[in-house]
Design brief:
With 313 residues, the protein is an alpha/beta fold. It is built from 14 helices and 10 strands. The chain has helices at 14-29, 45-54, 64-67, 87-96, 98-109, 149-157, 170-175, 186-191, 217-221, 225-245, 249-260, 271-278, 281-291, 296-310; strands at residues 2-6, 33-37, 59-62, 113-128, 142-145, 161-164, 181-185, 200-203, 208-216, 265-268. The termini are far apart. It binds ligand 6CS. InterPro entries: DctP_fam, TRAP_DctP_sf.
Length: 313
Amino acid sequence: DTWRYAFEEAMEEVQGKYAQKFKEEVEANSDHEVQLFPFGTLGESADIMEQAQSGILQFVDQSPGFTGALIPEAQVFFVPYLLPADQDQLVSFFRNSKAIHELFPPLYAEQGLELLTMFPEGEVMMTTTEAVASPEDLNEVKFRVMTNPLLVESYKAFGATPTPLPWGEVYGALQTGIIQGQENPAFFIESTKMYEVTDHLTRAGHNNFTTAVMANKEFFDGLSDEDKTVIQNATAAAFDYIIEYQTGLTEESVEKIQAAKPEMTVTTLTEEQRAPFKATAEAVEAKFLEIGGSQAQAILDQMKADLAAAAGG
Ligand code: 6CS
């Protein structure tokens, strides 16, 4: 039989690479086939999630950036400066986090989803039409964010006017001036040519892009133990692969952006410049506890314990 798997990016972007590896592993170790649906073939993130919940799709990759309304606790990934900038610590967190492996799965299960994995896609960077060195520079800037209430709050705290939009509308909205900024990992800014419609790239170090892969729960629960093992092994192999795949990807992508558009400014904010952005974290965290669902406190506490463990402390 054929299992259908949709994701939010193109085939040669990070989620597509992950999905291709997952497919390869499943097909090498079972008689099942996996059919891949990249961004645009079945709709926006919200559409593919609905299709996975209803069982039209067996697998879906949807980032917490779009899962906020469904699972309010998943908004925790938008508390700025919560995840570490250090790649080894970040990977260790994703591998070992009790929040991810034990606390989140029941929350996804309530929505008819079997959470298979979460993985990082890279440092999030801002691209804007005017240079950004401080929250004041974001004043009056209509800044596109994913449709996640806490991400909206975090950009409000950064001084911007957050504008939640599905991905498919972002390029056009920048082109026509409806918005003047957006954030994404470098590989995605490069592959989707966001640099064509913005002029300044800013690294505030405030986040890493997290994504999640899920199966329809009824489908998953109905599988034989053997098939469940095939899926779990494919998930683990694809996780290792996608971490390895991303080695050097961020800096290579920044270089490609600069080569494609030499006049694009690339600015890594200094610790001093980051300070006012970092100062917003406490208020955004408080907001998370307010709007992050009944398990918000438990998730945040566990995340912090997991992050401390990943930091070796
Ligand atoms: O900004 C977005 O909406 C998209 N960014 C990435 C890196 N992946 C998918 C998502 O839709």
